Every structure is written in C-alpha cells, then in structure tokens.
Amino acid sequence: MAVESRFVVIRQGVEVETFMDKKAADEYDKMLDMADNLAELFENATIELSENMREELSVYIAQNREQVLIALQAKKPKTVKKTVQKVEDNNSAAKETVSKSDAA
C-alpha cells in the first residue's frame, strides 16, 4: 500500500487546489491572500469595477507580484549577464556566440 501526502488549499470551506508539496501549497495560499487584500483595496477605490473584474485583476497582480514590485520601483529587476563563448565550426575557424543568462 502506498502512502501519499497531499496538501489542500481550502478557502471558505471549499477545496481550491491540491498540491503534492507543502511549499507549493503555501505559496499558492499566500498568493490567494494577496489577491483577497487587493480585491478589498479595489472595492474601496473610486474607480468602478465589477466584482468579476476586481477578482481577475487581483489574482493577476498577485500572480505577477515580482513584476508589479519592479514596476512600482519597490524592487530592482534582475540584471542580464552576457557571456562570450568560442565555438569551433567545421573549418576550424572560431566563431563567437553571445548568450544571456539571469544573474541571481
């Protein structure tokens, strides 16, 4: 008999999502908390948004929080590091290729 651990995110008594690891479940739950807070913020805003639009916008912003923080200048974007590599072709002449990678 196999034993599986599952982590279930429950909101208002309803199972929302099931995960196989705790970290993913915690991240998803945190994202939903952020979305709830954003929806409340939008509800009190002077602009008129339907309930569906508030929910969709809140979830979108919560899912893309890193880009939102960068747009708000609360966080610096990751720098792009260029590396140059020499690659030999069939004629034994060297070619230079440039690749980009994210710096941590």
Describe what this molecule looks like in 3D.
- With 104 residues, this protein is of the alpha+beta class.
- Helices cover 40% and strands 28% of the residues.
- The chain has a two-stranded antiparallel ribbon.
- The longest helix has 22 residues, at 22-43.
- It is flat, with a radius of gyration of 22 Å.
- The model has no long low-confidence stretch (mean pLDDT 83).
Mean pLDDT across residues = 83
Distance between the termini: 42 Å
List the total number of helices.
3
Residue windows where pLDDT falls under 50 for at least 5 positions: none
Output the helix-strand order: EEHHHEE
What level of helicity do the residues show? 40-55%
SSE class? alpha+beta
Can you summarize the main beta sheet? 2 strands, antiparallel
Principal-axis shape equals flat
Q: Tell me how many strands there are.
A: 4
Strand residue percentage: 25-35%
**Spatial strand order of the main sheet:** 1-2
Q: Cα-atom Rg, whole angstroms?
A: 22 Å
Q: What key phrases describe this protein's structure?
A:
104 residues, alpha+beta, two-stranded antiparallel sheet, 4 strands
Short description:
It contains three helices and four strands, in the order ββαααββ. It is an alpha+beta fold and 104 residues long.
Chart the SSEs and their pairings.
Layout lengths: L6 E5 L2 E6 L2 H22 L7 H13 L1 H7 L8 E9 L5 E9 L2
Helix pairs in contact: 1-2
